[in-house]
Structure formats: structure tokens, C-alpha cells
Design a protein that fits this description.
Blueprint lengths: L5 E2 L2 H9 L4 E7 L4 H16 L4 E7 L4 H6 L7 E6 L2 E7 L4 H16 L3
Parallel strand pairs: 1-3, 2-3
Antiparallel strand pairs: 2-4, 4-5
InterPro entries: Thioredoxin, Thioredoxin-like_sf, Thioredoxin_CS, Thioredoxin_domain
GO biological process, one term: cell redox homeostasis
GO molecular function: protein-disulfide reductase activity
Length: 115
Amino acid sequence: MAGDALKVEDATWEADVIKASELVMVDFWAVWCGPCQMVAPIVDELAKEYSGKIKVRKLNTDENPEVAGRYQVMSIPTILFFKNGQVVEKLVGARPKRQFKEMIDSLLAQHAGSA
């Protein structure tokens, strides 16, 4: 369904996240992680709500250790925000949807002028 958070992997990381022109939110998660399961529906809701404004991706850290290691993701869920291939913000741990929205709105406002 359009708007759902799409899966990203080591192989597609460069094209999907690093070379993206828009703001990209990446959820680093794993199947066994309880807090990740709590955050997953929020991430999907945000993908729908911000469709066309940001890209939302999910990266399974067990299946893609190379990317998780590159960004020193030590605990999950970790949400990284990328702009122009660089990490611009980071949230670690399960958070309420409101905190995600505040972060996204703030980043979109910052980058509106530099687009």
C-alpha cells in the first residue's frame, strides 16, 4: 500500500537513502525487539501522513549488519534522519508518535529553505 514504510537493505542503501534528495527517516529494527514492534505501527502511520514529503524506510539490523555497523547503531529501535546523505538527527528507543512528528516537522522546516 502506498505510504507504508518500505524495506531498505545493504544492497539498496546507497540509492535509497544516501542519494535521496528528500529527507529520509530510517527505522533500524529487528524481529525479536519488543520496543521495535511498538514503534512499527507508528512508523507506518508516519509514512502515510508524510507521504510525498519524506521517505520512510525500515532496516532489519539482523539482515543488514553492514549498514547498522556503519552508523554505530548499538540499540534498537534507532531512528536516523538523513538529508543529502548525512545523518541530521537521531532518536533511540521507543517514543510516542508526537515526538516523531515534532522531529519531522522541525527537520522539514529547517530544510525547506535549503531545498
